[in-house]
Every structure is written in C-alpha cells, then in structure tokens.
Design goal:
The structure holds 2 protein chains of 2 kinds. By secondary structure, chain A is an alpha/beta fold. Chain A is built from 11 helices and 10 strands. Chain A starts with a helix and ends in a 5-residue tail after the last helix. Chain B is mainly alpha-helical. Chain B is built from 20 helices and 3 strands. Chain B has helices at about 1-5, 25-65, 80-85, 90-95, 100-115, 125-130, 135-145, 165-170, 185-200, 210, 225-260, 265-275, 280-295, 300-325, 330-340, 345-370, 375-380, 395-400, 405-415, 420-450, and strands at about 70-75, 155-160, 200-205. Chain B has a 3-stranded antiparallel β-sheet. Classes of the chains: A alpha/beta, B mainly alpha. Bound molecules: adenosine-5'-triphosphate and magnesium ion.
Chain lengths: ~260, ~450
C-alpha cells in the first residue's frame, strides 16, 4: 500500500453532511445493522469496506430511504442530513432522493434509449428549460461517467444493449445528471477495467469539490486511492471509522487489521 | 490466506480418467431420459393437433354450407293494376298493398318462367309452384317497389331466395324419401327444380345475407343471418373494453404497486381469484337482478350484456395485469426511485410500459372469452328476442334489444328445422374467425411491445 500518499491526505472541511445515530436495520427478524453511529463529512469521499453480507448496502440504502421500498425492512435510530432528520414524517422520500443520488450495486439501466436513461432525472426535476439544455446535461453527464466516447454515436440505442461495465458507467452518468448533493455509490467499479476505473475515480475526486460521496468498495486499493474517510463494517457493526490513512496504516481493531491484510472476508 | 483453506472438507478420491470420445453409463442414461421426454412431448402435441384438426374439419364441413344459398332468378312484371291502382305513384297508396298483394305477381312470374323454358310439370299453376320459393320473396319485391316506385309497370329481373327445402335438396340434406310426409314440398317440386337447374335459373351461390342479415322467423331459415347479432356482440365488446380495461388496470396497479400488504389486501386478492372461478351463469342472474330488475335498464340490450360480461372479464384482466406487473424486475423500480421519481412516475414511466404486452394479451384473451360467453346472456334475455331488425343508430346499438353471436347460435341450434342446425354451424365459423382474429391481434401487440431488459 502506498503509505506515503495516504499520510499526506487530509480532510478538506469538517462540516458534517450526514449524521447517523444508533441506526438499527431489521429485515424481518434479521438484525442487519447494529448500533451504527457515523458522521459523514461534506466535500469528502467516504469509503465503506467490509466482507460480503456485512450490511454496507443496507446502510447505504438507509441514507436515501430506499429501504422504504422493502416491506420487511425496518429502520430505527436517527439519520440527519444537514441537521434535518430524514426519517421525519414530514420528509417526502421523493424529495430526499433527488438530493441523495444513488448508483446501485447491480447496473439497472431503464429499458429505454441511452439518451433517455440520462435525461429522465433532469426531465422530471425540471433541470432543463429546453431540448438544447437537456442535450448539454446529457452530454456532460455521460462525459463525467467516462462513457461519452463509446456511446455518442448511439444515443438512441437501448441502454440495456450495453456491456455490463458500460451499463455501470451509464448508471453513474444517470445519477450525476440530477446534480445530487450526496452521491451514494454501491461498488460502482465492480465490472470496470482499470482504465474506466481510473476515470470514475477521477470523477469521484472531482465530485468531492461540491458533494459528499459515499462509496462502497471491495477493493482496498480503491478505498485508499479515492477516499479521505473509511468505515469498516463487520457483521452489521461499524467496527472502525476514521481517516483513510489511519485505518489502513494504524487500525485500532484487530478485525479491521485482519480484513485489510486479507485474513477475513 | 492460510485460514481460508483450513476448514475445507477432506479431499475426496479423484475421478477416474475417462475419454471424452466414449459416453459413460451416466451420460448414456441421461441422454436416453432426455430422448424419452422429447418423444412424450411430441406425442402430446400430436394428440392435441389431432383433436384440433378433428374439430376444425367437423366445423368447416358442417358450417361451410351455411355460407352458400340457393337462389332463383326470374323476371317479375310489376303490374300497375295490382300495385298502384290510382296510377299516381303516391307512396302512401303503394304502401297500402301488403306482401299478400305481391304474391300473385310472383306466381305469375313463376308460371311464365316455366312456360318460357318449356318445362313440363305436374304442378297446375304458379301458386302451387311457389313452394319452391322462400316466403321472403314477396317482402323483397315489396321493398324494391317501395324504394323504386318509378319501376312500376316494368319487368325487372330478380334473384329470390329458394325455400329452405329446395336449398336442402341442393345441399343433399333433403331427399325424395325425407319429404314423403312433408306438406311443404312434394317430389313434383323437386322435379321442377331439377329442370330449372338445368336451365340455369336455379343456382347455389355465396350468400352474403348470412353474414350481414338478421335473424328470421322459424319457418324461413333461408333468410336468417348473423349480422344483427354481430352488431350486438360488437356493442357488448365496446362496453366490456371501455369498462373492464381501465377499471381492471387501475385496480391491479393499485393492488400491486401501492396497496399495503396486509390482511385486508390479502382478503381482496383471494376474492379476486375466487371471482375468476365463479361460473358465468351466476354473473348472468346477478345481472338480471341488479341491472334489469333493480336499475331498470332495457332488457336484452347490449349495454346490460356488456355490463354482465364486464363483471366476468374483470378478474381475468386483474389477474393477468398483476402477473405482468409482478414480472417487471424490481431493479427498474429502484432505478426510477433512485433518481428521485415518485412512486407514480416510476409506475407510469417505467413499469407500465414494460407490463403493457402482458396487460394487452390478458385483456384480449378476456375479451375473447366474453365474446364467446353464452350462459349469462340467456338469463338477461338476449336470446328470447329474435333480432330481426338492425339497431337504430349508435346509441340504439347499446339500448335496442339485440342478440349476440353465441346466443344466436344457441337459438338456431335449438330450433327444429335442420336448415337452422346448418346455420348454427355457420355461425360458429363466424365466431371462430372473430376469436382467431382477436388472438392474432394479441400476438401482434405482444411482439410489438415486447422489450428486453
Ligand atoms: N431484501 C432483503 N431481505 C432480507 N434480508 C436482506 C435483504 N437485503 C439484505 N439482507 C441481509 O442483510 C445483510 C446485509 O446485506 P447487504 O446487502 O447490506 O450486504 P453487503 O455488505 O452489501 O454485501 P455485499 O458486499 O455482498 O454486497 C445480509 O445478511 C443479507 O442477507
Ligand atoms: Mg452490497
């Protein structure tokens, strides 16, 4: 691991964007997230790491209330974004999700054209006044998703006809097109080659200027490369949370240490 | 990585090395099982096809004869002395002459025809010969005169329907033996027909009247057609489509996408499935009680039939719509919600278009079922009435008493005259053509709307 790079990196600001307190998630009787407390800073990339099935996706979905769509899921505790409780009964989850964008673990483009996939969000939120503006938004989003060059000649072809990795980047483009304040990315590079991965990591770093990004990843190298803060989950517990440099060079918990050195998971 | 391998089960003995070019016992058995299964499948399909062929052959051989009819061509002199005594072509006066008044003209025309052709017959005069003609001939003549009063006094060529006995004789249904005790026709008539046929005056040709016509009285099967009941069925289907598609789709979208999953919705769900299994005659008696006796809608009207069939079709549409909504992968809904679409937007922009082929197929199959349904129509009186008139205008189409295709077929099959039995088969062909067309439309729509994801 490139320790030199890690140590000199620090967090730009200390504004707290998302604050979670005593969050519990149950799927029926399964207790999937246990007592999670975490403060996610603004203008920061936060990485969630941990073995498969430890609850990374579950916790991510709490932050834009996607768990509301699962009948058996139950969320307890408090999650605040900009000091506002997102589980307050006055909060409309639709409005919340426009603010908190998400890239899903499995690429899920709409069975519509590539253009429509990206244009859909801006359209329903009224981000473009006319067709030319919408075209701009779409092109810009596809460029940031590092897929523009591959699809610029086939914008009207179905998004479902793309390769797995292309679909993943299309979904990233779709998520950034709506200009969210927080972007939740669930393993956004799992199907990408090193070149596309580098481009997405560049995008994530660029997004950090204005947004708060949370990324789930199974690649320690990626977490180390892109994030300033890292949270390690294990069996539904948030075991350790701190600056990425500390987690990778000086883990406090033995479980963290064995995971990042490759002994569990 | 060391503790990853520690917990592994003890290594099993290695498989023996075998050649890929020879099949081992297991593979052989597996292949044999597969071949056997394929053979069973082919046998099953062949049996199905055999039944289908048998059915089609029976229907076509029995029903195709209904589409041809025997016609007699002859020239009728429209005698002014009979039709317009005052000679002033006043329609009111002409109308006063009833169909009985026209009979002598036909008798005379028949006599003339036979004499002109030099045919010897045992029948003494035109009145006796007229048994070979349909009783509808006089009405046909009168209609012609009423719409062309200026033709009075002229001699005009007409093509009249032959009586159903003559028609049956040409089709092989009536023989000299079978008419031995028939008072309507004698073997002298059949001899006359033989001669007229030689001269080309009597011939069997395609009968458009069967497709466009209305039902006729018990004694005139040659005149009966399925046209009016086709209209009745059409208007009923309009009612069914206009009511059951929006109601069914709205109900299913609500139940599938919005309704909370609780005991109450479970209860509704179970009951919808139960409704789908309720015999159609139950819906018929319900329609009689509610729509006719309570709401006082007109009896035998397509609107009532349509309402009853809507009740019957709704569960079918709801079940198939829900199934196709369920088949849309949840990841599509997540994707829409994830970019900040509302529930309704996610359903109407993304889920519904994907479910459309399934919904349309279900709807058309439901409609096709409704089109062929007979039992509930019996109870609301759509057979009691003989649809001998076309409905009066568009609104009349819904409110005027009418029949429906399957009810008309049932009515014909019930009548004593074998000529009507033949027409029942013919009606079934027309009905099947409609059903096949609808199924074809369902297939085409499904192909068109189908998208992969
Ligand atoms: N819809 C669901 N219904 C029931 N249980 C679920 C559901 N989704 C997740 N779980 C359970 O919750 C736990 C956490 O799952 P989660 O998807 O959050 O894991 P993850 O950390 O994202 O794993 P991975 O790295 O494999 O994606 C798992 O034990 C899983 O079985
Ligand atoms: Mg996951």
């Amino acid at each position: 691991m490139n320790d030199m790079r890690l140590l000199e990196r620090d967090v730009d600001t200390n504004d707290i964007k998302i604050a979670a307190r005593d969050v519990q998630v149950y799927y029926g009787d399964t207790h999937a997230i246990k007592d999670v407390n975490v403060d996610i800073a603004d203008n920061t990339v936060t990485a969630f790491i941990g073995p498969s099935g430890c609850g990374k996706t579950t916790f991510l979905r709490c932050m834009n209330r996607m768990n509301d769509t699962i009948d058996i899921a139950r969320v307890e505790g408090v999650i605040k974004i900009d000091d506002e409780d997102i589980y307050d009964k006055n909060v409309d989850p639709v409005q919340l999700r426009a603010k908190v964008g998400m890239v899903f673990q499995k690429p899920n483009p709409f069975p519509k054209s590539i253009y429509d996939n990206v244009a859909y969000g801006p359209k329903i939120h009224g981000l473009a006044k006319n067709k030319a503006e919408l075209d701009d938004i779409v092109e810009n989003a596809l460029r940031r998703g590092a897929i523009w060059d591959e699809v610029k000649d086939r914008l009207q072809e179905p998004g479902t006809g793309l390769s797995g990795g292309q679909q993943q980047r299309l979904c990233i483009a779709r998520a950034v097109a709506t200009e969210p304040e927080v972007l939740l990315m669930d393993e956004p590079c799992s199907a990408l080659d090193p070149i596309a991965t580098a481009q997405i990591e560049e995008l994530i770093d660029e997004l950090r200027q204005n947004y708060s990004v949370v990324i789930v990843t199974h690649s320690m190298q990626q977490a180390a490369r892109v994030s300033q803060k890292t949270a390690f989950f294990h069996l539904g517990n948030l075991v350790e949370y701190g600056s990425t440099g500390d987690i990778f060079t000086n883990p406090q918990d033995p479980r963290t240490e064995s995971y990042i050195t490759g002994r569990i998971g | 990585m060391t503790d990853a391998t520690a917990g592994q089960p003890a290594a099993r003995p290695r498989r023996e090395k075998t050649s890929l070019l020879t099949q081992d016992g297991r593979t052989k058995r597996r292949n044999a099982a597969e071949t056997r299964f394929k053979i069973y499948g082919i046998i099953a399909i062949s049996i199905g096809l055999l039944f289908l062929m048998g059915m089609l052959i029976t229907i076509i051989s029995n029903g195709s004869r209904a589409f041809t009819q025997t016609f007699i061509t002859m020239e009728v002199t429209l005698d002014e002395a009979v039709l317009d005594k005052n000679g002033n072509r006043d329609l009111a006066d002409i109308r006063r002459v009833s169909t009985f008044g026209y009979a002598p003209l036909i008798n005379a025309a028949l006599e003339n025809k036979v004499q002109d052709l030099g045919i010897e017959t045992l029948l003494e005069d035109g009145a006796a010969m007229r048994a070979i003609m349909s009783a509808s001939a006089a009405a046909q003549l009168r209609d012609y005169v009423l719409s062309n009063p200026d033709q009075i006094g002229e001699t005009v060529e007409f093509q009249f329907l032959a009586s159903s006995r003559v028609d049956g004789y040409l089709k092989g249904r009536v023989t000299r033996e079978s008419i031995a005790r028939d008072r309507n026709i004698s073997s002298a008539h059949l001899l006359l027909i033989d001669d007229l046929m030689e001269q080309g005056t009597v011939e069997r040709s395609f009968n458009l009247g069967f497709i466009t016509g209305t039902d006729a009285s018990e004694s005139r099967p040659e005149q009966a057609g399925i046209g009016a009941s086709m209209i009745g069925s059409f208007f009923m289907m309009l009612v069914v489509l206009a009511l059951s598609l929006p109601i069914g789709v709205a109900a299913s979208i609500y139940l599938e996408e919005f309704a909370p999953k609780n005991l109450f919705t479970d209860f509704i769900e179970v009951n919808i499935s139960n409704l789908a299994a309720v015999p159609s005659i139950v819906f018929g008696i319900l329609g009689l009680a509610v729509f006719i006796q309570f709401a006082h809608l007109p009896q035998s009207a397509p609107i009532v039939g349509g309402l009853v069939l809507t009740l019957m079709t709704l569960p079918t549409i709801i079940i198939s719509t829900r199934a196709s909504l369920k088949a849309v992968p949840p990841s599509i809904r997540d994707a829409a919600l994830g970019v900040g679409a509302s529930k309704m937007q996610s359903v109407f922009h993304h889920v519904l278009p994907l479910a459309m082929p399934g919904i349309l197929t279900g709807t058309i199959i439901g409609l096709a079922q409704a089109l062929g349904e007979t039992a509930p129509l019996l109870l609301i009186g759509m057979v009691g009435f003989i649809a001998s008139e076309y409905p009066d205008g568009f609104v009349g189409g819904f409110l005027d008493p009418n029949s429906a295709m399957p009810a008309q077929i049932f009515e014909w099959a019930k009548r004593a005259d074998p000529a009507y039995y033949e027409r029942a088969w013919g009606g079934i062909i027309v009905l099947l053509v409609f059903l096949m067309t609808m199924n074809l439309i369902a297939i085409i729509l499904r192909r068109r709307f189908e998208r992969r994801w």
